[in-house]
Amino acid sequence: MNKFDLRRWAVRDGKWKLQLERNGKTPELYNLEIDPTESRNVASRHPETVQRLEQAFQEWKKDVYSDCPYDLNDIIVRLKTAGIIPAQ
Predict the structure, then answer these.
(1) What is the pLDDT of residue 59?
(2) What is the chain's Cα-based Rg?
(3) pTM
(4) What phi and psi, each to the nearest 5 degrees, are found at residue 18?
(5) In total, how many domains does the chain have?
(6) Residue 85 — pLDDT band, cuts 50, 70, 90?
(7) DSSP annotation string for 6-52
(8) Fewer Cβ atoms within 10 A, N terminus or C terminus of the chain?
(9) How far, in Å, CA of 73 to CA of 88, rounded?
(10) Domain range for residue 29?
(11) pLDDT over threshold 90, residue 68
(12) Cβ–Cβ under 8 Å, residues 85 and 76
């Protein structure tokens, strides 16, 4: 697992928005059609949608980063060390 996997991410498909933090928190799924303020997490009622959207994200991530010749975590560390991006 790399640091990218620990970050928060979101996937949107039509009315559905899935948010997940890779730090042990449970996924958050919102039906934006009826809950545009994202106040009601319905992940427990739609596990198949959570699984489908999480899989879509994993496939996207693999596709985007599969041919990257650089270690993205190393680049982030270097940018923080150089003061280009804030160290958190």
Answers:
(1) 87
(2) 16
(3) 0.66
(4) -110, 130
(5) 1
(6) confident
(7) GSEEEEEETTEEEEEESSSPPPEEEETTT-TT-----GGG-HHHHHH
(8) C
(9) 14
(10) 3-81
(11) no
(12) yes
* Arithmetic mean of pLDDT over the chain: 85
Please give the order of strands across the beta sheet that includes 16-21.
8-13, 16-21, 28-31
pLDDT confidence of residue 11: 93
Cβ(54)–Cβ(11) below 8 Å? yes
In this prediction, residues 29-35 reach a mean pLDDT of 97
Query: Which residues have C-beta within 8 Å of that of residue 22, sequence separation ≥ 6?
Result: 1, 5, 6, 7, 8
Which uninterrupted H or E stretch holds 62? helix 47-65
Determine, yes or no, domain membership for 19: yes
Question: For the domain that residue 13 is a member of, what is the CATH number?
Answer: 3.30.1120.10
